[in-house]
Design brief:
The protein is an alpha/beta fold and 527 residues long. Helices cover 36% and strands 19% of the residues. Strand 21, helix 17 and strand 22 form a beta-alpha-beta unit.
């Protein structure tokens, strides 16, 4: 245990600062402070000593030099059980500083402003603060360093419990967080400066920082160890930051599938349900209400839905909960559900399956139910020795974007179904062929090496429902064979990007079967 006798406080963000300062006063801790922090503390009646008074050296250069002095850094870095250190400190009038409370100028907030100048950015590069924090963290055996107001409550409690002392273990934990804090700060500065003259939308350097949220039992397979990391702050409604309300701990595969389920239903304005297996939808539907959306999605492939993840884009009511429970009674095992929220009755009903994972994200959309904003505009994929970065695929098409290339024009109802199918196929692994009737999928062929095989699987999955359905292909047909399979199955209309050297032959085949065909000019590969 280390007694806290002298603390130096210098903060930009003064949230809850008075609370920690009062606690130090109660434990008879001498407080050193600077500038605006000193003024803030004095205004509330807290007695402090100005750092300039302690060092005998004034603040200068418009506040650029405040704490950069041997009396400060000697007090932070001295090892007081080292006789030589102690003698040198006494000779130079250096006293121990046992605690530093410091947070930094708001560099990231400053450079995020659209009208920020380089001069503004430079002036918001903190020098004295990071130097003090690093010095205190290096000498954690002697000094406690606080960099976040969220730490204050624990420190106050520990000081009270331990009669003004803090444990070695706690000081070490504070030091680790301090170095993370300064590393993040320096990374933000270096990234900003490195990209000043970069007109590319992708930065010259890519700095990533995630914090461990959980240790997982294992990865994709039991012989693989795994952990779950997430961003510093919640970027918006997403699976990574969803609140778990019920069930067993999430697995590696659960998290992947929950993310897929939520990202699909966020794409729809109307009530929608996605049923996910192995990161692919085995059923997807939108409807006037959530229970119908679930029922219609399930009808696509009940067999594959065993052990599935369900994503919903509206508050789950008791009606929807009971519909899900009836499906479970019929043999459909649902591992997890993710939705914006649940009524109390719905949550109670769904939680009767003790190990069923139930997650809540909070509102996905505005009150007008427009598609939600992208929570992560860039996607990152690992490869050995590097990463790939791309924009998220958020491209939407509307009726006016479609180019009709067949002799038969699609009906109004067919166009609505084609637009639904096109939006749905974006979320299926390539190669993808997806069949839909109205706004529900009836057959999905996912992740095949050839498009014709994907078509065969989708038609087989749909069975009799393939007749009079519409078909979405995430990329062009390289040959007419996939279209021939669709025609033989009685499919009425096709939506696809176009762009094949065999487009003319593909269109002729559609005409031969009396099918309507529209082109988007956009493909939706999902590897």
């Amino acid at each position: 245990m280390k007694k806290i006798q002298r603390a130096l406080i210098s903060t930009y963000d003064k949230t809850d600062l008075i609370d920690i300062a009062n606690a130090l006063v109660q434990h008879k801790v001498e407080i050193l402070s600077t500038g605006g922090t000193a003024k803030h503390l004095r205004e509330t009646g807290i007695e402090i000593i100005d750092v300039s008074e302690y060092t005998g050296f004034p603040e200068m250069l418009d506040g650029r030099v405040k704490t950069l002095h041997p009396k400060v850094h000697g007090g932070l870095l001295a090892q007081w059980d080292n006789a030589e250190h102690a003698a040198q400190a006494e000779e130079n009038g250096i006293k121990p500083i046992d605690m530093v409370i410091c947070n930094l100028y708001p560099f990231e907030e400053t450079v995020a402003k659209p009208d920020v100048t380089l001069e503004d950015a430079i002036e918001n590069i903190d020098i004295g603060g990071p130097t003090m924090i690093r010095a205190a963290a290096k000498n954690y055996q002697q000094v406690a360093v606080l960099t976040d107001s969220n730490q204050y409550a624990q420190i106050i409690s520990d000081l009270d419990i331990n009669d003004g002392c803090l444990s070695d273990e706690l000081r070490f934990e504070l030091a680790k967080k301090a170095f993370l804090h300064t590393a993040h700060y320096d990374r933000a500065i270096s990234t900003y400066l490195a990209n000043l003259d970069n007109n590319d939308e992708f930065s010259n350097t890519l700095s990533l920082q995630y914090h461990k949220a959980d240790s997982l039992r294992y990865g994709e397979n039991p012989h693989q160890s795994a952990a779950f990391y997430r961003t510093d702050t919640k970027p918006g409604p997403c699976a990574a930051w969803a609140k778990q309300l019920n069930g067993s701990p999430l697995s590696f595969n659960n998290i992947l599938d929950l993310d897929a389920a939520l990202e699909i239903v966020k794409d729809f304005k109307t009530p929608a349900c996605a049923i996910i297996k192995h990161n692919n939808p085995c059923g997807l539907a939108s409807a006037e209400n959530l229970q119908d959306a679930f029922t219609n999605a399930l009808e696509c492939d009940k067999t594959s839905a065993f052990g599935s993840i369900v994503g919903l884009n509206r508050k789950v009511t008791i009606q929807t909960a009971n519909t899900i429970r009836e499906a479970a009674k019929s043999g459909v095992k649902i591992e997890a559900i993710i939705a914006p929220s649940y009524t109390d009755k719905a949550l109670y009903a769904l939680s009767r399956v003790e190990n069923r994972r139930i997650l809540e994200t909070g509102p996905l959309n505005s009150s007008s139910h427009t598609p939600s904003t992208v929570t992560n505009p860039m996607q990152i994929r690992n490869v050995s020795g590097g990463v790939l970065v791309q924009e998220q695929d958020v491209h939407h098409i509307v009726r006016s974007d479609l180019q009709v290339v067949s002799k038969r024009k699609p009906t109004h109802e067919e166009i609505e179904s084609l637009l639904f199918a096109w939006k749905a196929c974006k979320h299926v692994k390539s190669n993808c062929i997806l069949l839909a009737q109205g706004t529900q999928t009836v057959g999905i062929g996912a992740g095949q090496m050839s498009r014709v095989d994907a078509a065969i699987i989708a038609v087989r999955k749909a069975g009799e429902k393939a007749k009079d359905s519409v078909l979405a292909s995430d990329a062009f047909f390289p040959f007419p064979d996939g279209v021939e399979i669709a025609g033989e199955a009685g499919i009425r209309a096709i939506i696809q990007p176009g762009g094949s050297v065999n487009d003319d032959l593909v269109i002729e085949t559609a005409d031969a079967y009396g099918m309507a065909m529209v082109l988007t000019g956009i493909r939706h590969f999902r590897h």
